[in-house]
User: Fold DoxX family protein from Actinoplanes friuliensis DSM 7358.
Amino acid sequence: MLAGVLATSGVLHFARPKPFDSIVPRSLPGSPRTWTYFSGAAELAVAAAIANPGTRRLGGLAAAGLFAGVFPANVKMAVDWRDTSPARRAIAYGRLPLQIPLVLWGLRVAKR
Assistant:
């Protein structure tokens, strides 16, 4: 299931990159689109690693690291959306604590 979540998100980074571009922290060098594609490719690679029993442990650890690594983008989204509609704020703020169970999910996959 985690591989499916990551694969779907990875594909979305390529199919609909604009929303992802907008949450790339400005402090990162280069183009936001480059980071969008890089993170999408990372999600696809981690999904493949989780789907393969021989690399599942490494994939789970990589997923936990990936979920922790994208946290600054979620913070940027929450800051950028602080003056938007209540629904958009709920989405943006809801993504912040969601990272914790996602990191734990990756670690659980790594332990199995």
Remarks:
- The first helix runs from residue 2 to 15.
- The chain has one domain: 2-111.
- The helical segments are 2-15, 18-21, 32-51, 56-69, 71-80, 86-111.
- DSSP finds six helices and no strands in the chain.
